[in-house]
Design goal:
mainly alpha; 16 helices; two-stranded antiparallel ribbon
Length: 342
């Protein structure tokens, strides 16, 4: 279910965004085709081929790392789809062969890369991978969060090797929104949770199986901030454009990106207030709400069988809203979508 759910989201993203600006170009530029609805089926087939190839590669890598065939298959399906369910009680924190957690996490990061990027690399060569601005940002962000987390863990009693192991893997899991873990919730202090909250919120690339606000929206926000700073030093009538990956980002695309980010945080805030009303610890409840809305699955220990039913249902709504990026859910709930004059 995780595997075809991840595939469904990635393929639907290609089909549904076929007429929409920057995100559409990001999804279809790999084939050089025009941005037309008639091309969406072709792109969907290509994404299916890429997805299957990634899954087979992940399975072989995890199997070669020392896991038995069936558990290797389970983890390959969960990693590439960034679903994160593990067949082991301790997820990736148990007594596994040393290379297995790294193989699983690499598969998860591969799933967090825009699938058309792989097709582009197949046609244009490996240089197309590094030419993808979201992929570069994903690598830098994962490494940066991992380094910060490792240094923090090392400064609070964990050996350097253990800190690097747990810090890098946890950061990659949060950034890719896969949700695998190497530490139990009770082993995470507040600072570790705060770092992971930020990584989970950012998420992976557009057109990938990952959740979160998506890197390209955060890059648009960063470009806007840069534009405001630069404009202060330019003449009043100077014309400046927001560009990403060589493309001009128009006003409609900027508004849509900022709207999704705002709605994302609105859902988190409202859900968090509900948890606070039930008396749960602020940081722990925020961690679980962000994890659900970003479709990650990591938990601080709040989410469990004893969680009140209303809060369980609330987290289910958060996961649905996060996976559909909220706007789609609002459209479904908008009455004229169902009852309007034809």
């Amino acid at each position: 279910m995780q595997w075809y759910g991840g595939l469904g989201i990635a393929v639907l993203a290609v089909a549904l965004l076929a007429r929409q600006g920057l995100a559409a170009r990001k999804l279809v530029e790999s084939s050089g085709a025009e941005i037309l609805a008639s091309t969406s089926r072709i792109h969907a087939r290509r994404m299916l081929a890429v997805y299957v190839a990634l899954t087979i590669g992940a399975f072989l890598a995890i199997w070669a790392a020392g896991l038995a065939p069936m558990p290797a298959l389970y983890h390959a399906l969960a990693a590439v789809s960034t679903g994160g369910f593990s067949s082991f009680d301790a997820s990736l924190g148990g007594t596994l062969p040393p290379l297995v957690p790294y193989a699983v996490m690499l598969a998860a990061l591969a799933g967090a890369v825009s699938l058309p990027t792989y097709y582009s690399a197949l046609r244009r060569g490996p240089r197309a991978l590094w030419g993808d601005y979201e992929l570069r940002t994903l690598i830098v962000a994962s490494a940066a969060w991992g380094l910060v987390l490792s240094l923090w863990l090392a400064s609070h009693g964990m050996t350097l090797i253990s800190a690097l192991h747990n810090g890098m893997l946890l950061a990659a899991s949060a950034q890719s929104t896969a949700g695998f873990t190497t530490l139990a919730a009770v082993e995470m202090d507040n600072q570790t949770k705060a770092i992971l909250i930020l990584a989970m919120w950012v998420g992976g690339s557009a057109g990938s199986t990952s959740g979160g606000a998506k890197l390209f929206r955060l890059l648009i926000l960063a470009r806007l901030a840069q534009l405001v700073v630069r404009r202060s030093a330019l003449p009043e009538h100077a014309v400046m454009e927001v560009r990403l990956g060589g493309h001009v980002v128009n006003d409609q695309e900027i508004v849509q990106a900022m709207l999704v980010i705002a709605l994302f945080w609105a859902v988190i805030l409202l859900s968090w207030l509900m948890f606070l009303a039930y008396g749960y610890a602020p940081l722990d409840s925020l961690f679980d709400v962000v994890s659900a809305t970003a479709t990650v699955g990591l938990s601080s220990g709040v989410t469990g069988p004893s969680l009140p039913v209303p809060l369980k249902l609330l987290l289910c709504v958060d996961m649905l809203a996060g996976r559909l990026e909220i706007l789609a859910l609002l459209i479904v709930l908008y009455p004229p979508t169902w009852f309007r004059k034809r």
